[in-house]
Amino acid sequence: MEILRKSSSIWALPIILLSFFIVVFNNGVVDASHKVYMHLQSTSSVDVKNVHRTGYHFQPPKNWINGPMYYNGVYHLFYQYNPKGAVWGNIIWAHSISTDLINWIPLEPAIYPSKVFDKYGTWSGSATILPGNKPVILYTGIVDANKTQVQNYAIPANMSDPYLRKWIKPDNNPLIVADMSINKTQFRDPTTAWMGRDGHWRILVGSVRNHRGKAILYRSRDFMKWIKAKHPFHSATNTGNWECPDFFPVSLKNTDGLDTSYNGKNIKHVLKVSLDVTRFEYYTVGTYDTKKDRYIPDNTSVDGWKGLRLDYGNYYASKSFFDSGKNRRIMLGWANESDTVDDDVKKGWAGVHPIPRKLWLDPSGKSLVQWPVEELETLREKNVQLSNYKLNMGEKVEIKGITAAQADVEVIFSFANLDKAEPFDHSWADLYAQDVCAIKGSTVQGGLGPFGLLTLASENLEEYTPVFFRIFKAQDKYKILMCSDASRSTLKNETTMYKPSFAGYVDVALTDKKLSLRSLIDNSVVESFGAGGKTCITSRVYPTLAIFDKAHLFAFNNGKEAIKIETLIAWSMADAKLH
């Protein structure tokens, strides 16, 4: 173990407050995943560069990416992929397999545009295992230049192939076509199907009408003929289009996962949607009324922009599945690039998949908990440890002896009391946590916090991405702000680069006066899990100095209350095998 000097020099840096509006790019508009760059979508990659490529996060060797399945002991990752360029377009269903969710083997594409019902695109969908252990894929096909969307299916060509390399699209597609009540150009992403007590299959398809996002319910006796329900399964005003809906049960008793069709006692249900307008993932916890075939969120869950998020950072288009092999529910998401489209073309690739996460219902029954799958720990190599280390205001300590650009860090912070927590400004009540983080960044001295980690930092802190907590006193409770702030992550100064101060609040009691943090650092990705996974934030960053062996890792405190590092363990992480 090598721990460098304690220092307070960082806090001499100038304090720069960001505007407390959501940071946007591309002339004020956050890029949508379906934005078409006709002049670039088939442009060959200029040079596949490795400076910001990840070592243990999944990404193909080059070009652009965006439904998983566990079948006969093998994990299948189907993902949206542009085989011809590093921007969105030419989308097919690429296919990779794994036995551990970490090391992957690419196979030939599973689905690509080839027939009249998907001639203009094969967009997102889901996999379902039918009785008799028969897998089937439901996906959205684009049938014309107007982006008319229909729902199709595909099945394995050879069930005896353990890897299911080839898939066929039967000619009785499409299975579902939008009726006159549906916006046929905003009608996509069918969910994994579940079977009701009546023996009928059900799926949801995301859509929107008059700014009301909705999950449209379809039922089928035989999985071939689908009938739309008279009413939406769930909807909410002023939320825009609902993409990539996901619906699944969670246990009230333990952290085990449940099959999507399970509907026994002691469960809640979760409805997750990806909001096309904000580019964030939102979910509610609630009750599935099986008699009315409707979903009712609990009064502790809010639909829309003020609702709970799976991840408060760069995380979108996620999809969960039930892993019957280990009796757990796994979530996989997608993290887009935050640099420019031109940068993507130059470096030759765009998009990564965050580490798969096990998820379960918090004991409070109000929210989800997420944690990296245990298989990730097989990549841990050399480690360093630190314990009972005190940090006064303005002090930091460097963690040496590991590969700081590619690491896994777990730390528990403690503090003697809560008396120095700053009052929560009432004018922030209507702000998002991200806005408060932009005002109260890591260099803004506080009472209890900010304290945390400085990841992907250059030696003299010209660049760094801080992941930290700050505790506020708000009336009769404490508010815990968790931030992953990319505003100082790079010296690159392009006005179109997206460098937000991502943040979320952590719903945890502070009775033991401790907070835990885990950060997965991987060259251009920082995935962080606060309080055991109650709040998660993924950031994409592009340092120019803090790369490879020039990257550094620090723990810091910039609050008046002294912080103790109870325990800190940091591992160098090996590369995953992406054959």
From TrEMBL:
Pfam families: Glyco_hydro_32C, Glyco_hydro_32N. Keywords: Glycosidase, Hydrolase. Residues 375-571 form the Glycosyl hydrolase family 32 C-terminal domain. PANTHER family: BETA-FRUCTOFURANOSIDASE, INSOLUBLE ISOENZYME CWINV1-RELATED (PTHR31953). The keyword Hydrolase applies. It comes from Anisodus acutangulus. Residues 57-372 form the Glycosyl hydrolase family 32 N-terminal domain. One of its GO terms (molecular function) is hydrolase activity, hydrolyzing O-glycosyl compounds. InterPro entries: ConA-like_dom_sf (IPR013320), Fructan_Metab_Enzymes (IPR050551), Glyco_hydro_32 (IPR001362), Glyco_hydro_32_C (IPR013189), Glyco_hydro_32_N (IPR013148), Glyco_hydro_beta-prop_sf (IPR023296). One of its GO terms (biological process) is carbohydrate metabolic process. Belongs to the glycosyl hydrolase 32 family. It comes from the Eukaryota. This is Beta-fructofuranosidase. May be present in two forms, a 70 kDa monomer and a heterodimer of the 30 kDa and 38 kDa subunits. The ratio of the levels of the two forms within cells appears to be regulated developmentally. The keyword Hydrolase applies.
